[in-house]
Amino acid sequence: MFVPAIKGQGTEEQQKKWLPLAYKFQIIGCYAQTELGHGSNVQGLETTATFDPMTDEFVIHSPTLTSSKWWPGGLGKASTHAVVYARLITEGKDYGIHGFIVQLRSLEDHSPLPGVTLGDIGGKFGSGAYNSMDNGVLRFDHVRIPRDQMLMRLSQVTREGKYVQSDVPKQLLYGTMVYVRQSIVADASKALSRAVCIAVRYSAIRKQFGSQDGGPETQVLNYRTQQSRLFPLLASAYAFRFVGDWLNWLYTDVTQKLEVKDYSTLQEAHACTAGLKAVTTSATADAIEECRKLCGGHGYLNSSGLPELFAVYVPACTYEGDNVVLLLQVARILMKTVSQLTSGKQPVGTMAYMGKVQHLMQSKCAVKTAEDWLNPAFIQEAFEARALRMAVNCAQNIGQASNQEEGFYERSPDLLEAAVAHIQLIIVTKFIEKVHQDIPGHGVKEQLQNLCNVYALYTLHKHLGDFLATGSLTPKQGALANEQLGKLYAQVRPNAVALVDAFNYTDHYLGSVLGRYDGNVYPALYEEAWKDPLNETVVPEGYHEYLRPLLKQQLKLSRL
Ligand SMILES: CC(C)(COP(=O)(O)OP(=O)(O)OC[C@H]1O[C@@H](n2cnc3c(N)ncnc32)[C@H](O)[C@@H]1OP(=O)(O)O)[C@@H](O)C(=O)NCCC(=O)NCCSC(=O)/C=C/CCCCCCCCCCCCC(=O)O
Ligand SMILES: Cc1cc2nc3c(=O)[nH]c(=O)nc-3n(C[C@H](O)[C@H](O)[C@H](O)COP(=O)(O)OP(=O)(O)OC[C@H]3O[C@@H](n4cnc5c(N)ncnc54)[C@H](O)[C@@H]3O)c2cc1C
């Protein structure tokens, strides 16, 4: 994040100076924004950067305990430099949060520079690999940096100390977070596909109950409950991959537009990166845990690969923006869009469907049979009607409040659900668009169509209350969707293993005895057990000190 921060907020000159050093690892940088007292509320950060015109320097200082930088990855032990976000103060005025490049450690002996106190913040969630990341704490005691180490692409301070705001939206200060959020969506798909690969392969070899007259037991993958829990996660892995590809396109397109000072899609980029990051990471974190449960007891072994994957993955719901805070950002944009509908301003991009407000507010879903739910047009319209009606309902309720802001906070739980509905519509839309493309490979398109319908109908089934409460569906149509879902599971079943093999993960990368490509699980589980250090001695350490005396004492007592 150190590099994209300099690329996005540094001048050409600053990029020329600092990026080669970072690329060649002559310096190691981190992104020091979050503080002990503030993470979500960036504008509440307390670290100060006060301009001293006498020396043409900024004085970086941590005025309070809560202003200590806290969490930045790489900060505790590895980084020599940081992009530090601090309140810019010049001529006695506070101009809010800006980025500054600050050296933290000597390039000679890695010792902290004068005025810099830093270290690691301690162990994190379980024994997961995230403990290999030195998330750190950092305090400044009046550390001086040259004025040219303020990142000056978005705003400047002159030699005399005058603050100059460039003619660019101040939200570009948040550009690094937008960049990482869009990459997190692709990573959600990777993490989810790893968990699903393990669970599908293991479910194919695990047999439990169901043997007739001594025949083989039933593969658990054939149980409808296993399929109804597992196949929506398989479909989600593909859904997040395709929406992540599209989001990367959107981000690239917005970045190119920014180069020519076209800021027209900045809001769309913010809403989509924030919302998709929130929805895909929440779903993926829950799904990895579900995959552990789908593997029964063996899923709880570290050798299954699932506990580690979960422990490393779950902070994605928090870092790069707490998911609730991000969804409320989406909700704000939805409310703004709804308020503009009466002005005749046509919504664009992923909000364009809201322009069909007249139709969508009174449309009746035309589904009459279970098979009708295989028609993408019916799915698309049902999801559009649900999302729009939830947004309009929120806007109407907020409108009844005496104060817009008060109304927004009062209705924030409903706004959260409306934001999720909008983002799920985007995911469904991009999956439908994907399967409409020419897709190479015999039968591949049909399989992806099945998964697209599984993702859409499972999401509809899981959120059926929204569809019914908004009148977007009737209970009968909801039941038909569920009926069709069961038929789709039967179609996915024969290809389930092939659909996870298609992720093409090596056994090494998967790191799971349950997810081995060869399915040879039991010998691998048994072999793995003996690698446990506890098994280095047949008689456990502590027997003579603790167990033996206890056993002997009990034996004596029993003879009395
Ligand atoms: C947005 C906030 C919540 C609020 O900001 P604020 O300034 O107060 O603004 P508002 O008043 O709400 O809004 C004002 C207007 O600005 C608009 N706006 C807001 N944000 C943006 C934006 N980003 N872009 C554009 N516009 C924006 C908003 O809509 C308003 O517009 P209008 O006026 O209404 O028109 C802000 O405070 C905020 O963003 N808070 C969240 C803070 C945050 O996200 N912090 C993150 C810190 S960095 C961090 O956490 C780093 C973590 C590192 C994790 C590692 C990541 C790894 C990813 C890859 C993993 C690879 C693994 C590989 C796996 C494998 O391969 O195996
Ligand atoms: C593993 C990890 C790595 C990280 N790496 C970095 C890094 O490299 N650099 C960096 O700068 N930071 C980093 N962070 C910090 C991270 O960005 C913040 O923790 C994150 O942004 C959440 O902010 P917070 O901790 O202040 O949460 P809070 O906002 O305090 O969240 C607490 C609760 O308050 C709720 N809440 C907050 N505001 C509102 C609101 N307005 N309305 C409703 N509910 C609200 C939240 O939903 C949540 O339930 C990292 C964090 C983690 C866990």
UniProtKB/TrEMBL annotation:
List the subcellular locations.
Peroxisome
Q: Which residues form the Acyl-CoA oxidase C-terminal domain?
A: 376-552
Positions binding FAD in this chain are 34, 73
Which InterPro entries does the annotation name? ACOX_C_alpha1, Acyl-CoA_ox_N, Acyl-CoA_Oxase/DH_mid-dom_sf, Acyl-CoA_oxidase, Acyl-CoA_oxidase_C, AcylCo_DH-like_C, AcylCoA_DH/ox_N_sf, AcylCoA_DH/oxidase_NM_dom_sf
Required cofactor names: FAD
Q: Name one GO cellular component term.
A: peroxisome
Q: Give the GO molecular function terms.
A: acyl-CoA oxidase activity; FAD binding; fatty acid binding
Acyl-coenzyme A oxidase N-terminal domain location is 1-28
What does the record give as the active site? 320 (proton acceptor)
Q: Which residues form the signal peptide?
A: none
According to the entry, every stretch annotated as the Acyl-CoA oxidase C-alpha1 domain falls at 174-335
Q: Keyword check for Flavoprotein, yes or no.
A: yes
Q: One matching Pfam family, short form?
A: ACOX_C_alpha1
Q: Which UniProt keywords apply?
A: FAD, Fatty acid metabolism, Flavoprotein, Lipid metabolism, Oxidoreductase, Peroxisome
Could you tell me the superkingdom of the organism this chain comes from?
Answer: Eukaryota
Tell me the Gene Ontology biological-process terms attached to this UniProt entry. fatty acid beta-oxidation using acyl-CoA oxidase; lipid homeostasis; long-chain fatty acid metabolic process
Matching entries from Gene3D superfamilies are given as:
Acyl-CoA dehydrogenase/oxidase, N-terminal domain, Butyryl-CoA Dehydrogenase, subunit A, domain 2, Butyryl-CoA Dehydrogenase, subunit A, domain 3
Family classification: Belongs to the acyl-CoA oxidase family.
Q: What is this protein called?
A: Acyl-coenzyme A oxidase
Organism expressing this protein natively: Panicum virgatum (Blackwell switchgrass)
